[in-house]
Amino acid sequence: MTEQMQVTRSWFDEVIVPTYAPAAFIPVRGLASRLWDQQDREYIDLAGGIAVNALGHCHPALVKTLTEQGQRLWHVSNWMTNEPTLRLARKMVDATFADRAFFCNSGAEANEAAFKLARRYAKEKFGEQKNQIIAFLQGFHGRTFFTVSVGGQSHYSDGFGPRPGAIQHIPYNDIAALKELISDSTCAVVMEPLQGEGGVLPADKEFAKAVRELCDQHNALLIFDEVQTGMGRTGSLFAYMQMGVEPDILTTAKALGGGFPIAAMLTREAVAQVFQPGVHGTTFGGNPLACAVAETAFDLINDPAMLAGVKEREGWFRAELEKINAEYHCFSEVRGQGLLLGAVLTEAFAGKAKAFVDAGIEQGVLVLVAGPNVVRFAPALNLTAEEFAEGMRRFTLAVAQVVKA
């Protein structure tokens, strides 16, 4: 066996393409909602791998499935299907509005497939002129060139040459702006039921219903990006289930594999049929290893007790953040749903969200930003009361550190 080299954080600056600026510490193991670094220092994880580790770290049921499937079958290529893929697809369509599932590896890939599908459907059913995609400012849909162009944050798509055309952005929750822009040339409206990267901003129910009605009037497809809000994050299996609105296409990833890379695009039968063999594809998507793990994660999350627990834990966070704010007066509001919550900073702390994250690391708790003015929480759905209490104790110390700096 090759002798293990002593890895240090400085290696990142020497050998990794600098698309990120990671923290100074390197985590080496995790269990439930706790992480330990190379020095065996413990952190309470209230970030959840950015809403990925929905069942915490190294959940025993996921480890068991991964180990068993890993000894059985990993990959067979897309000219064959496999049992885990078919079981997972069956469970997902049975639990949702959808009739068909397409599996891939990431949220960006799921959204890429969704946008291509919408364009293809419109072209085949209505003609070449029906190609406009309407999306929303501050939205985020992935890092491929198509998805980053549909996303409503231009700093992610600037600097790469001409963007794909026929994509327009309007303010989120603005019904009047949508009414003015949408037309019979619109092929799809793309939205997150709750904008995650854009500041943890929920859609108004009236807005969501108006979007659905306008899409129906103009024969446009409604695409819900539930990459972050899906898989129990908001207290229902998918966020749309609490909105009184069904999409035509839904994308999900992040928590679907409980930490193992997998994504899905779900859609209706008539829409799915425009993707015939050869039109779209993926090498690793739907591999048996990923789908077996995701099936176990799906079974654990799609459970009434687990979903009810998400709502209960939302109450824990809101009460504790209110208590912290009563002392330190740094949050103007706490918004979001379930266990995707954003503490919006007051004017006095505008632009300092990362300072709270950095202070949290010093105090041994992991939280996130959602833009420069929002501290975001996206912990495991099965976060225990003990983990929560200790995490918020440490977060309180972090808040005090920033406020008194």
Automatic annotation (TrEMBL):
GO terms for molecular function: identical protein binding; N2-acetyl-L-ornithine:2-oxoglutarate 5-aminotransferase activity; pyridoxal phosphate binding. CDD domains: OAT_like. GO terms for biological process: L-arginine biosynthetic process. Its cofactor is pyridoxal 5'-phosphate. Binds 1 pyridoxal phosphate per subunit. GO terms for cellular component: cytoplasm. Its EC number is 2.6.1.11. The modification N6-(pyridoxal phosphate)lysine is found at residue 254. It comes from the Bacteria. PROSITE patterns: AA_TRANSFER_CLASS_3 (PS00600). It catalyses: N(2)-acetyl-L-ornithine + 2-oxoglutarate = N-acetyl-L-glutamate 5-semialdehyde + L-glutamate. Pathway: Amino-acid biosynthesis; L-arginine biosynthesis; N(2)-acetyl-L-ornithine from L-glutamate: step 4/4. The keyword Aminoacyl-tRNA synthetase does not apply. It is found in: Cytoplasm. Keywords: Amino-acid biosynthesis, Aminotransferase, Arginine biosynthesis, Cytoplasm, Pyridoxal phosphate, Transferase. May also have succinyldiaminopimelate aminotransferase activity, thus carrying out the corresponding step in lysine biosynthesis. This is Acetylornithine aminotransferase. The gene is argD.
